[in-house]
Amino acid sequence: DGKFDPEQLEKGAAALKEIDASKNAKLAFELASLQEKTHQMQFLRDMEKQKTARSQMEEQMSSVQAEEARKTISHQAEQERVTAQHKAEVENSLQGRKLELQKEVTDYQLKREQEQFMQHEAIRLRNEKQLEEMVRETIRARGMQNIETEKATAQAEAEARAKQERENIDVRLRAFRAEQAERRKTALESIETFFSSMSAGAEALYDDRAKTATLIGGLTLLAGGVYGARATTRVAARVLERQLSRPPLVRETSRWSWRPQLSLLPKRTASSLFESIVLEENLAERLQWSTNALLNAQQNGTPFRHLLLHGPPGTGKTLFARTLARQSGLDYAVMSGGDLGPLGREGPHELHKLFGWAQSSRRGLVLFIDEADAFLRRGRAGTGAMSEDARNALSVFLHHTGTENTHVAVILATNVPSVLDRAVLDRIDEAFEFPRPAYEQRLQMLKLFVDQYLYRKGQKNRAIIEVDPALDDKFLEDVAQRTDGMSGRQLAKLVLAFQSAVFGSGTTRLTQGLAQTVLQWRLSHPNAE
């Protein structure tokens, strides 16, 4: 209640007095001292424990702080890594977008160039069509004018002649009658003179038998001389024709002939021939072997070998044969199997004449037959499979090639060797297959055709076409990769299409966009002319 209660103090004082009065007071004091020391030691121990706990807590705090600092540093590094990654992603995205924009710009430029090319082509075709129409209209108008003029002239001349004839008819009649009378008189006098002379001659011959014998002998000798000269002339003409005349089946030959040879090409050296032809390495090596074999056969007088060239169109079979023929040093002649068909019944006879003409070559002759499958195909056994003329032509060929020949070497070229007659294949000594060019050959051909058609110099010794520097060897390598399956002829047409596109666009520069447009079109239409 807020009042001091002395009762407890009194109880304490009474207890102290009892302790002091007790005989164990000293022990009680010592016990109290020990208890006090024990409490102090307990307090010190608790203090040490607290100090130890505080130290442990400080160590734990230091560890926690170090871990937190490590986590903070790791988090900062992670944040920096994430930031750098995000920055890189943003930069990559920007770079990709930049490339896409560049691609869009390039595609747009290519599209514009393609559209311009197509527009130029359309304008060129329209102008050519209009020009042709104008030329046709001019020719038509000129023809109509000439017809009208000729009709008017002819009518005027006819009217003038009719008028003149009507005016002079009496004069012409009198002149005609006088002329006929004079002719009749002259004819009668000539007949009378002739019979008088014949009568006198007959009487003289009858009287003199020696003159009669002389006359008969002279007439006999004259007739014999006339007929003998005619026969001799025919024989000499045949000999000269066989030696000098070129058979109609021969399209090209190196032999001299009195007929004009419009298709005869100028001679070229062996090195220049190999510079202008691109062949697979093994095929080129076999070409050299065959050339050496022909030369050695001609020099040693041994029989020639017959060859077969086969492969897809445009792979160089004809060029190979002409190269082989020209480089061999022999005479050569070129014919086409398709030329026999139009000759009909005369075909076998002309083929026989051709082989006879070839046999007369003193140096030996290489006979190249292109499109041999046109008349050397199978079908002799079947009825109706071959015409009688084609069967006879095949028989003539087999007759002339049935034995070894030291004068004529035959080279056949065909796209489909499987259709040739077995007897023809039996006469072949070596076959050459011409596959489509591989990548290396296509690249070499492209470089050759580009130098030939695009970098060709004009009359003023400067290039006709200016080629974009971007159309370098790397571009040609890409074109060679994309033109897999094309033949040499198709690659030549591709480069000529580049040239035609430049001329058709009205400029003198071949850009990369224009070249890509033409290339894409040729890849879509590989067989277009």
Commentary on this structure:
The termini are far apart. The longest helix is centred in the first third of the chain and has 183 residues, at 25-207. Among the domains are: 148-244, no CATH class; 252-435, 3-Layer(aba) Sandwich (Rossmann fold); 441-524, Helicase, Ruva Protein, domain 3 (Orthogonal Bundle), CATH 1.10.8. 68% of the residues lie in helices and 6% in strands. Strands 1-3-4-5-2-6 form a 6-stranded mixed β-sheet. It is built from 13 helices and 8 strands. It has helices at 7-21, 25-207, 209-244, 270-275, 281-300, 317-328, 346-359, 388-400, 422-426, 439-453, 473-482, 488-505, 512-524; strands at 252-253, 307-310, 331-336, 365-370, 408-414, 430-433, 466-467, 509-510. α7 (346-359) packs parallel to α8 (388-400). It is elongated and about 235 Å long. It is α/β, with parallel strands linked by helices.
The major β-sheet equals: 6 strands, mixed
- In total, the number of strands is 8
- Globular, elongated, flat, extended or rod-shaped: what is the shape? elongated
CATH architecture of the domain at 252-435: 3-Layer(aba) Sandwich
The proportion of residues forming helix, as a percent range, comes to 55-70%
CATH class of the domain at 252-435: Alpha Beta
The low-pLDDT segments are 257-273
Tell me the CATH topology of the domain at 252-435.
Answer: Rossmann fold
> Helices and strands: which structural class?
alpha/beta
Q: What is the strand arrangement across the widest sheet?
A: 1-3-4-5-2-6
* Tally of alpha and pi helices: 13
What's the overall average pLDDT, rounded?
79
- Strand fraction equals 5-15%
Encode the helix/strand succession as letters.
Answer: HHHEHHEHEHEHEHEHEHHEH
- Could you name the CATH homologous superfamily of the domain at 252-435? P-loop containing nucleotide triphosphate hydrolases
